[in-house]
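look at this fold:
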Amino acid sequence: QVQLVESGGGLVQAGGSLRISCAASGRSLSNYIMGWFRQAPGKEREFVARVTWRGGGTYYANSVKGRFTISTDNAKNTVYLQMNSLKPDDTAVYYCAAGLNSATYRYWGQGTQVTVSS
């Protein structure tokens, strides 16, 4: 089993920055892909970014490319999402997920709320 716990969400003004974290525990995640997703009120959950523990390759949704950065700290088993130049449209609950491939994420965290005020 894998446990994922997000933290670091909050309220920030448009144009500001925020870093959210996802602490992973349980089985080894060295073969896993870690992803960040978000869900805004009344909208479907959408992909934000992903990274591989092994190799560190990253991929971003077009809507966040150039503003968000996903990274890992292997020693802490933690995945980060640095969010810069935030917009009100970035307001959502952000979820961390882990999977063996980018099409299927088996483990999910409980989410952390990010609110961007205009």
